[in-house]
TrEMBL record:
<protein>
    <submittedName>
        <fullName>SRPBCC family protein</fullName>
    </submittedName>
</protein>
<dbReference type="InterPro" id="IPR019587">
    <property type="entry name" value="Polyketide_cyclase/dehydratase"/>
</dbReference>
<dbReference type="InterPro" id="IPR023393">
    <property type="entry name" value="START-like_dom_sf"/>
</dbReference>
<dbReference type="Pfam" id="PF10604">
    <property type="entry name" value="Polyketide_cyc2"/>
</dbReference>
Amino acid sequence: MASIHHEVFIGADPDTIWAAARAIDRLHDQLVPGFVVATEMLAVEGAPVRRVTFASGAVADETIVSLDDDRRRMVWAIKAFEHHNGVLQVTEAPEGTQVVWTADLLPDSLAGRVSPMMAQGLACMKAHFESGDGRG
């Protein structure tokens, strides 16, 4: 199983970043505009499922497994993968925020495609909040 780990420091308030991250239907305009172009909540029973459309044209249906406001931690699974467990955690850091994004996935061969997308997503998040567009 591939395990991917990326992190970034963002010079913005962690509560502001977490509020955008936990708005699970607003990735495209609150968390990573330009990286995600649309987020749609699907009408399903059980855990919430969002359809995420990336700027690259890729589309992923993601089941939201957990939203933990106390730990500022979100967990989701991508339904089309054999296995996917994604975690985004937002923590306070001196003069800003540390954001950690990890993913465990199968098949391993997807890591070469997923890892660069994760790095690009964090770079977009950093640019969004540090530019003032994210009001951070």
